[in-house]
Amino acid sequence: MTDTDDTPMTPPSDEAPSDVARGSGVALWKQIAERIEADISEGRLKPGARLPTEAELAERFGVNRHTLRRALATLTDQGLVEATPGRGTFVKEPPLRYPISPRTRFSEIVSGEGRAPGGRVIASQVEAASSDIAAALRVAPGTQVLRLDMLREADNVPLTIGTHWYIADRCRDLDLIAAATGSVTRALEALGLGDYRRLETRITARLADEEERSLLALPPGRAVMVVESINGDPQRRPIQFTRARFSADRVQLIVKN
Predict the structure, then answer these.
(1) Are residues 100 and 213 in the same domain?
(2) Domain boundary among 77, 92, 107
(3) Do 112 and 179 lie in a common domain?
(4) What HEC string does the chain produce?
(5) N or C: which terminus of the chain carries fewer CB neighbours within 10 A?
């Protein structure tokens, strides 16, 4: 089945320089993909730019949405665009370089890459430390710990979900400060713990689960990098254990030696 049978919708705009050629022997979806790819490679569509809606693109090229979607699927497979549920389709930006070093700060890293950092608290609660959390924080199992879940963004694009654990007695009201500032670093600074250092990092990868796909706006089948880290004070006493899930194709982790 070819796309030459498409019934034209509204004729393409006279301003559009990239009309498709019917009867050329080249499938319409392929021509559309090539036109959009040219817009990207020649700088008419910048990284991070939002593409017009499906309806607008279908009108521009005078095709039905089935044909348009096939073209967009091809561009997605090529890694040129990315569709995020509820937001639209965007020209894919290069992965954000995320160095992991003794002093790793999300906001500083994102700002250093020329993007606007953002964050919000998803949930917080005090709970009994499980054996693995207790071991990371060097406390007895069952010790009261503060759990803080945060979503972190760059230019309003979700990059990572972080689940953080702190010894509750040492970090009272940290969740309230983080909710007000959108920053874990600022919250720790307010508690006199801003000079923390990375003690240990473990990195694995797996497919994103349903909750992660929803929060990170990922389509099915995408992977996340799971970064477990322990941060400590100047005396190397653990103050934070974090399990962060990064969108694997939006971030490039760089381990600094």
Answers:
(1) yes
(2) 92
(3) yes
(4) CCCCCCCCCCCCCCCCCCCCCCCCCCCHHHHHHHHHHHHHHCCCCCCCCECCCHHHHHHHHCCCHHHHHHHHHHHHHCCCEEEECCCEEEECCCCEEEEECCCCCHHHHHHHCCCCEEEEEEEEEEEECCHHHHHHHCCCCCCEEEEEEEEEEECCEEEEEEEEEEEHHHCCCHHHHHHHHCCHHHHHHHCCCCCCEEEEEEEEEEECCHHHHHHHCCCCCCEEEEEEEEEECCCCCEEEEEEEEEECCCEEEEECC
(5) C
pLDDT one-digit tens code per residue, 75-131: 988 888 888 767 788 888 888 999 999 999 999 999 999 999 999 999 999 999 999
Range of the domain at 1: 1-92
- Average pLDDT of the residues in 187-205: 94
The overall pTM is greater than 0.90 = no
User: Are both 84 and 103 inside the same structural domain?
Assistant: no
Q: Which of 85-99, 136-150, 187-201, 217-231 has the lowest mean pLDDT?
A: 85-99
Confidence band, pLDDT 50/70/90 cuts, at residue 46: confident
